[in-house]
Amino acid sequence: MNAPAAPAVSKPERSATAGRPSSAKPPGPCLLVIFGAGGDLTKRLVTPALYNLACTHLLPENFAIIGVDHTASDDQAWRDHLSQAMQSFVGGTGEFDPAAIDQTAWTWLTERMYYQVGDFEDSKSFDTLRDRIAEIDKAHETGGNVIFYLAVADRFFGRVIDELGKAKLVDADEPAPADEAKPWRRVVIEKPFGHDLKSARDLNARILKVLDEDQIFRIDHFLGKETVQNIMTFRFSNGMFEPLWNRDHIDHVQITVAETVGVEARGSFYEATGALRDMVPNHVFQLLCMTAMEPPTSFEADAIRSKKVDVFKAIKPVEPHHAVRGQYESGSVLGKSVRAYRSEPNVDPRSNAETYAALKIDIDNWRWAGVPFYIRTGKYMTRRSSEIAIQFKQAPMALFAETGCEALRTNWLVIRVQPEEGISLQFEVKRPGPTVELQTVKMNFAYKDWFPPQQNVGYETLLYDVMTGDQTLFQRADQVEEGWRIVQRVLDQWAKTTPDDFPNYIAGTAGPAAADALLAQDGGRSWRPVAVDAGPKPLSTGLASK
Ligand code: BG6
């Protein structure tokens, strides 16, 4: 990750690309090979991200893309297919919803796009691919630098990498002319990386026979989110928060990733996955370790990644009694009636797959011992809201005992990851008037008030970083394995039984009652409401809450 740009006190103008100071330069020449060229990920996220990078001139001039998939097609048909897809996003409501497609940037990109029919499990396809890479590398002068992006189902990861190895496509030892930098080969792997601790270990062992760790970029798209990257900057660039960021001042932390989408057409995937596997050891744990890590000694990738792994190492495997699972019943989400999980297509009518998971995590180190981190994630919840909420310890009551005030409310610092990205601080003030009456108020920073809106699907920074060889925002082998280790006991326990109370939360609500009990049993704590912007509201937006 680049060091932060110089601080600004007025509303700064920035480069239109996420996370890059306006001084960001295009990376050096390279060729991007996408396995899974016909897939949803390529269409919905990778192509729009490449287009956004092209719009902001953050792709190299010497750049080309080869899309590989098993369906018969050719260069022009693939370009047309993606052109239609891009056009279909215009004015939409998805991650990529431009007002119009910039034809100059799009044409620039399509002129560099090629299609190669290939079977991911057939060695011959990789020999053909090698020849095609050589041809296109020469035509576009991409310097022999190649990124292989595995936008394919996870069952192909090991095999594709084996085949890349056999075809000598990922050899880092190619001879380079004395006056040129050695060409590099990098591999991007999507999630899920394994489906439990054993399979993650096996996959790491298998791919590390072919690749060096510094060639591997394991993507977790949460790390592509600006607000997630900002957690570290917020913590370590402000003198006033970090001194409070520990067990002396913090009561507990709540991390919520609530979604308003259901499982819908993803039944077969979800039946084998469930909410815990799908969201926790990867996305939610990224939020957890960004919040809990010690300050790194530099912005070097390994300095940061090691501090994250240290957080995981201090967490014992979660015991099943510290975990709650839920499954949605039919209900209404944002005013629309939706069916129960068990009635979704390709779902067993007696399924025990969870669509909601909550865990209590204890980090047993000097900073956090005794400060629980409660995490929860679920489909079809009340609102879409991802946030990290830090509750500070209560101030002494002594001064206010005589005022009629029954209890002091605690302060919350809330980092809103999405939507309504921002940070707020909730604290007490005296209500104007002759007596001492307390009122909870909130100071709010909203990204939209300070930064111009930008087209960003979350993959721009990640792709740029792969091109520049920066691994900071990618998971190292040990981090992935630690994540699985922490949840493994719960996964094992949940696989054995189907809860009697499933389905146990109504779609469009905040989750099962047992999740409330998980906090209540710890001295009466409770979850924050699942709301885009929970907490007190000023008079201008409604009556202030007391
Ligand atoms: C994916 C999960 O990795 O992340 C989905 O498979 C989930 O189930 C999605 O909906 C959430 O990502 P985002 O960026 O929409 O919050």
TrEMBL record:
Residue sites binding NADP(+) per the record: D119, F120, K191
GO terms of molecular function: glucose-6-phosphate dehydrogenase activity; NADP binding
Domain Glucose-6-phosphate dehydrogenase C-terminal span(s) in chain numbering: 232-528
Catalytic residues as annotated in Swiss-Prot or TrEMBL: H283 (proton acceptor)
Domain Glucose-6-phosphate dehydrogenase NAD-binding: 33-230
PROSITE patterns in alphabetical order: G6P_DEHYDROGENASE
Gene Ontology BP annotations: glucose metabolic process; pentose-phosphate shunt, oxidative branch
Pfam family, one: G6PD_N
Chain positions recorded as substrate binding sites: H221, K225, E259, D278, K379
The protein's role, per its UniProt record: Catalyzes the oxidation of glucose 6-phosphate to 6-phosphogluconolactone.
NCBIfam families, per the entry: zwf
Family, as annotated: Belongs to the glucose-6-phosphate dehydrogenase family.
Entry protein name: Glucose-6-phosphate 1-dehydrogenase
Species assigned in the record: Lichenifustis flavocetrariae
